[in-house]
User: What shape does this take?
Amino acid sequence: MQIIKLNATDSTNLYLKDLMNSKPVSDYTVVMADVQLKGRGQMGTNWDAEPGKNLTFSVLKKLDKIELPNIFILNICVSLAIYHTLSKLNVPNLKIKWPNDILSGTSKICGILIENMLLGNRVNASVIGIGLNINQTNFKGLPRVSSLKLLLGDHLSLDMVMGSILKDLENTFLFYESNGILQLKKEYDELLFRKDKPSTFQDIQGKMFMGFIRGVSDEGKLVVELEDEITKNFNLKEIKLLY
Assistant: This one.
Protein backbone atom coordinates (compact mmCIF):
# COMPACT_ATOMS: atom_id res chain seq x y z
CA MET A 1 0.00 0.00 0.00
CA GLN A 2 1.50 3.30 -1.11
CA ILE A 3 0.78 6.38 1.02
CA ILE A 4 1.57 9.79 -0.47
CA LYS A 5 1.68 12.61 2.10
CA LEU A 6 1.32 16.22 0.97
CA ASN A 7 1.51 19.48 2.87
CA ALA A 8 -1.23 20.99 0.72
CA THR A 9 -3.16 20.29 -2.46
CA ASP A 10 -6.34 21.58 -4.08
CA SER A 11 -8.06 18.22 -3.58
CA THR A 12 -6.71 14.78 -2.69
CA ASN A 13 -9.34 13.24 -5.00
CA LEU A 14 -8.13 15.39 -7.89
CA TYR A 15 -4.47 14.69 -7.12
CA LEU A 16 -5.09 10.94 -7.12
CA LYS A 17 -7.09 11.06 -10.36
CA ASP A 18 -4.32 13.07 -12.04
CA LEU A 19 -1.78 10.54 -10.79
CA MET A 20 -3.82 7.70 -12.30
CA ASN A 21 -3.79 9.50 -15.66
CA SER A 22 0.00 9.81 -15.63
CA LYS A 23 1.12 6.32 -14.56
CA PRO A 24 -0.10 2.94 -13.24
CA VAL A 25 -1.33 3.21 -9.65
CA SER A 26 -1.82 0.23 -7.33
CA ASP A 27 -4.98 -0.71 -5.46
CA TYR A 28 -5.42 1.11 -2.13
CA THR A 29 -2.98 3.87 -3.01
CA VAL A 30 -3.58 6.73 -0.55
CA VAL A 31 -3.09 10.47 -0.94
CA MET A 32 -3.37 12.50 2.26
CA ALA A 33 -2.85 16.23 2.83
CA ASP A 34 -2.49 18.50 5.84
CA VAL A 35 -4.77 20.95 4.06
CA GLN A 36 -7.05 20.82 1.03
CA LEU A 37 -7.35 24.20 -0.66
CA LYS A 38 -10.50 23.20 -2.55
CA GLY A 39 -11.86 20.26 -0.57
CA ARG A 40 -15.33 19.22 -1.71
CA GLY A 41 -18.28 17.36 -0.24
CA GLN A 42 -21.47 15.96 -1.71
CA MET A 43 -23.14 18.08 -4.44
CA GLY A 44 -20.24 20.54 -4.63
CA THR A 45 -20.28 21.71 -1.01
CA ASN A 46 -16.98 22.80 0.55
CA TRP A 47 -15.19 20.75 3.19
CA ASP A 48 -13.21 23.08 5.49
CA ALA A 49 -10.64 21.74 7.93
CA GLU A 50 -7.89 23.34 10.03
CA PRO A 51 -4.44 22.33 8.72
CA GLY A 52 -2.88 19.31 10.42
CA LYS A 53 -5.77 18.65 12.78
CA ASN A 54 -8.02 16.38 10.72
CA LEU A 55 -7.84 13.56 8.24
CA THR A 56 -8.29 14.58 4.62
CA PHE A 57 -7.30 11.74 2.31
CA SER A 58 -8.31 9.76 -0.76
CA VAL A 59 -8.03 6.06 -1.51
CA LEU A 60 -7.98 4.30 -4.86
CA LYS A 61 -10.14 1.16 -4.99
CA LYS A 62 -9.91 -0.89 -8.15
CA LEU A 63 -13.07 -2.80 -9.05
CA ASP A 64 -14.29 -5.21 -11.69
CA LYS A 65 -17.51 -6.70 -10.37
CA ILE A 66 -19.80 -3.75 -9.68
CA GLU A 67 -22.18 -2.78 -12.48
CA LEU A 68 -23.45 0.78 -12.80
CA PRO A 69 -26.99 0.11 -11.42
CA ASN A 70 -25.40 -1.31 -8.23
CA ILE A 71 -23.00 1.56 -7.67
CA PHE A 72 -24.44 2.36 -4.21
CA ILE A 73 -22.63 -0.75 -2.95
CA LEU A 74 -19.57 1.51 -2.70
CA ASN A 75 -21.34 3.96 -0.37
CA ILE A 76 -22.43 1.09 1.85
CA CYS A 77 -18.96 -0.47 2.10
CA VAL A 78 -17.13 2.81 2.75
CA SER A 79 -19.68 4.10 5.29
CA LEU A 80 -19.59 0.83 7.23
CA ALA A 81 -15.78 0.67 7.22
CA ILE A 82 -15.56 4.12 8.82
CA TYR A 83 -18.39 3.25 11.22
CA HIS A 84 -16.48 0.15 12.37
CA THR A 85 -13.29 2.15 12.96
CA LEU A 86 -15.12 4.79 14.98
CA SER A 87 -17.00 2.14 16.94
CA LYS A 88 -13.69 0.64 18.08
CA LEU A 89 -12.67 4.11 19.29
CA ASN A 90 -15.90 4.21 21.36
CA VAL A 91 -17.32 7.22 19.55
CA PRO A 92 -20.88 7.51 20.95
CA ASN A 93 -24.25 7.37 19.15
CA LEU A 94 -22.89 6.68 15.67
CA LYS A 95 -25.29 6.90 12.74
CA ILE A 96 -25.06 7.13 8.95
CA LYS A 97 -26.91 10.08 7.42
CA TRP A 98 -27.91 9.04 3.91
CA PRO A 99 -26.06 8.69 1.69
CA ASN A 100 -22.76 8.57 3.57
CA ASP A 101 -22.20 11.22 6.24
CA ILE A 102 -21.15 9.82 9.61
CA LEU A 103 -22.80 11.42 12.64
CA SER A 104 -22.34 11.23 16.38
CA GLY A 105 -25.76 12.03 17.75
CA THR A 106 -26.87 14.86 15.44
CA SER A 107 -23.35 16.20 14.76
CA LYS A 108 -21.43 15.45 11.57
CA ILE A 109 -17.93 14.15 12.11
CA CYS A 110 -17.11 12.62 8.72
CA GLY A 111 -17.93 13.28 5.09
CA ILE A 112 -17.30 10.99 2.11
CA LEU A 113 -17.03 11.83 -1.58
CA ILE A 114 -16.80 8.89 -4.01
CA GLU A 115 -15.88 9.52 -7.64
CA ASN A 116 -16.13 6.60 -10.05
CA MET A 117 -14.30 5.71 -13.25
CA LEU A 118 -16.46 3.72 -15.65
CA LEU A 119 -15.60 1.12 -18.26
CA GLY A 120 -18.76 0.43 -20.23
CA ASN A 121 -21.53 -0.30 -17.70
CA ARG A 122 -19.10 -1.33 -14.97
CA VAL A 123 -17.22 0.65 -12.34
CA ASN A 124 -13.56 0.18 -13.19
CA ALA A 125 -12.17 2.08 -10.18
CA SER A 126 -13.24 4.52 -7.50
CA VAL A 127 -11.48 7.38 -5.77
CA ILE A 128 -12.81 7.52 -2.22
CA GLY A 129 -12.36 10.90 -0.53
CA ILE A 130 -12.69 10.97 3.25
CA GLY A 131 -12.76 13.98 5.54
CA LEU A 132 -12.81 13.09 9.25
CA ASN A 133 -12.73 15.68 12.04
CA ILE A 134 -10.21 14.51 14.61
CA ASN A 135 -8.39 17.14 16.69
CA GLN A 136 -10.15 20.34 15.59
CA THR A 137 -12.28 21.85 18.36
CA ASN A 138 -13.60 25.09 16.83
CA PHE A 139 -16.13 25.02 13.99
CA LYS A 140 -17.30 28.60 13.51
CA GLY A 141 -20.80 28.88 12.08
CA LEU A 142 -21.26 25.10 11.98
CA PRO A 143 -23.44 24.13 14.97
CA ARG A 144 -24.02 20.55 13.83
CA VAL A 145 -20.36 19.57 13.45
CA SER A 146 -18.07 17.86 15.96
CA SER A 147 -14.74 16.02 16.18
CA LEU A 148 -13.28 12.99 17.89
CA LYS A 149 -11.40 15.20 20.35
CA LEU A 150 -14.60 17.00 21.35
CA LEU A 151 -16.43 13.69 21.70
CA LEU A 152 -13.72 11.62 23.40
CA GLY A 153 -11.61 14.25 25.14
CA ASP A 154 -8.35 12.85 23.75
CA HIS A 155 -5.85 14.02 21.15
CA LEU A 156 -5.61 11.25 18.55
CA SER A 157 -2.90 10.27 16.08
CA LEU A 158 -4.01 10.97 12.51
CA ASP A 159 -1.85 8.13 11.18
CA MET A 160 -3.33 5.67 13.68
CA VAL A 161 -6.91 6.52 12.78
CA MET A 162 -6.20 6.46 9.06
CA GLY A 163 -4.45 3.10 9.35
CA SER A 164 -7.49 1.67 11.11
CA ILE A 165 -9.84 3.05 8.45
CA LEU A 166 -7.73 1.57 5.65
CA LYS A 167 -7.71 -1.84 7.34
CA ASP A 168 -11.48 -1.75 7.89
CA LEU A 169 -12.00 -0.56 4.32
CA GLU A 170 -10.04 -3.51 2.96
CA ASN A 171 -11.82 -5.97 5.26
CA THR A 172 -15.25 -4.64 4.30
CA PHE A 173 -14.56 -4.96 0.57
CA LEU A 174 -13.19 -8.49 1.12
CA PHE A 175 -16.36 -9.39 3.02
CA TYR A 176 -18.48 -8.03 0.16
CA GLU A 177 -16.50 -9.95 -2.45
CA SER A 178 -16.93 -13.20 -0.47
CA ASN A 179 -20.47 -12.81 0.87
CA GLY A 180 -22.31 -10.31 -1.32
CA ILE A 181 -24.07 -7.14 -0.24
CA LEU A 182 -27.18 -8.38 1.61
CA GLN A 183 -25.73 -8.53 5.13
CA LEU A 184 -23.85 -5.24 4.68
CA LYS A 185 -26.95 -3.50 3.33
CA LYS A 186 -29.00 -4.74 6.30
CA GLU A 187 -26.41 -3.28 8.70
CA TYR A 188 -26.34 -0.01 6.75
CA ASP A 189 -30.14 0.28 6.85
CA GLU A 190 -30.23 -0.28 10.60
CA LEU A 191 -27.66 2.47 11.16
CA LEU A 192 -29.51 5.12 9.15
CA PHE A 193 -30.00 8.41 10.98
CA ARG A 194 -33.70 9.03 11.83
CA LYS A 195 -34.72 5.56 10.64
CA ASP A 196 -38.33 4.76 11.62
CA LYS A 197 -38.72 8.14 13.34
CA PRO A 198 -41.13 10.88 12.20
CA SER A 199 -38.97 13.31 10.23
CA THR A 200 -39.38 16.51 8.24
CA PHE A 201 -38.16 16.65 4.64
CA GLN A 202 -37.95 19.30 1.92
CA ASP A 203 -38.38 18.55 -1.79
CA ILE A 204 -36.72 20.32 -4.72
CA GLN A 205 -39.59 22.84 -4.90
CA GLY A 206 -38.98 23.81 -1.26
CA LYS A 207 -42.14 22.10 -0.01
CA MET A 208 -41.87 20.48 3.41
CA PHE A 209 -43.49 17.17 4.29
CA MET A 210 -43.42 14.49 6.97
CA GLY A 211 -42.32 10.91 6.56
CA PHE A 212 -40.46 7.93 7.99
CA ILE A 213 -37.12 6.69 6.64
CA ARG A 214 -37.46 2.93 6.07
CA GLY A 215 -34.12 2.19 4.38
CA VAL A 216 -32.48 2.50 0.99
CA SER A 217 -33.39 0.80 -2.28
CA ASP A 218 -30.95 -1.44 -4.17
CA GLU A 219 -30.17 1.59 -6.35
CA GLY A 220 -29.33 3.68 -3.29
CA LYS A 221 -32.47 5.81 -3.21
CA LEU A 222 -33.87 6.83 0.17
CA VAL A 223 -37.06 4.90 0.94
CA VAL A 224 -39.54 7.15 2.76
CA GLU A 225 -42.98 6.14 4.00
CA LEU A 226 -45.44 9.00 3.51
CA GLU A 227 -49.08 9.42 4.57
CA ASP A 228 -51.50 6.52 4.12
CA GLU A 229 -48.54 4.09 4.19
CA ILE A 230 -47.47 5.15 0.69
CA THR A 231 -43.75 4.51 0.11
CA LYS A 232 -41.66 6.62 -2.26
CA ASN A 233 -38.00 6.42 -3.27
CA PHE A 234 -35.94 9.63 -3.57
CA ASN A 235 -32.65 10.47 -5.28
CA LEU A 236 -30.07 12.62 -3.48
CA LYS A 237 -31.06 15.81 -5.33
CA GLU A 238 -34.78 15.26 -4.79
CA ILE A 239 -34.99 15.43 -1.01
CA LYS A 240 -33.39 17.07 2.01
CA LEU A 241 -33.73 15.84 5.60
CA LEU A 242 -34.45 18.77 7.95
CA TYR A 243 -33.61 16.94 11.22
Observations:
- The CA atoms of residues 36 and 193 lie 28 Å apart.
- The first strand starts at residue 3 and ends at 9.
- The chain has a mean pLDDT of 93.
